[in-house]
Amino acid sequence: MKTEMIAINTGMQIEYALSGPPEGETLLFVHGLGANLRQFEPQQRFFQDEYRVLLVSLRGHGRSASPPQPTPANYAVKALAQDIRAFLHQLEVGRVHFVGNSLGGLVGYELLKLDAGWVSSLTTFGATAELHASPFLLWTQLALIWLLGAKGMAWLVSKTASPDKAVAAQVGQMFQAATKDALALITGNIADYDYTGIIHRHDLPMLLIRGGRDREINARLGSTLAAWQGKRGFKLVELPGAGHFANMEHPAVFNDVLADFLREKTNRKGAKDAEE
Asked: What is the mean pLDDT of residues 147-153?
């Protein structure tokens, strides 16, 4: 995959990949904690003939820059969303269909909070809009990160991130390109949050893809589903065999689900439909 670097007005150098027809609607994919834009290579290949596909690595991930003396505020979800807003403005891509996995989903909610004018639709998977982790769980996670570092965490997630061993290995490889500061400070920032109010305040097409094997997230989805239910544009799709990284574990099914949602909720026909 060919990637580029761009300087944005938040002071960051951001890694990205852009493909597809310049006149097409833009699909923006944002990865989870520890991953990077390479998480969405299967989606780039699938959607780039019909859409303008934009992949991005968040600060401290992939080849994107890190703040020189990072603080928790540097890795707040708001700071990540501000990067995305500045990034979209710099590229002049206009509104996007936002697709976020895990942390990426939270960035999507935060972007809605900052400036909803950038978002045409929101898709999340492996993400809950509300979480209040126990202090003990948070302490355990942070201790692991500081003890193992990025390389040690890469080894750990390569064994545990997915029931699919090949996917887990790929996630582990991506973790090696994340900084320890990013992993630790973001983990601290996403232990206690609530975006359900953001859902209530917006009426736009929303898709939640729920992997049947993503047990930790599924156990915490109650308030998210309650907030989304009854929204005119909301759609819930179950992928029983998928875990936290559904787009990598079952890319063909994931791609079809996302494509159908975009066509249904935006009243848009796909290339194959147009030919018939």
From this structure: 94
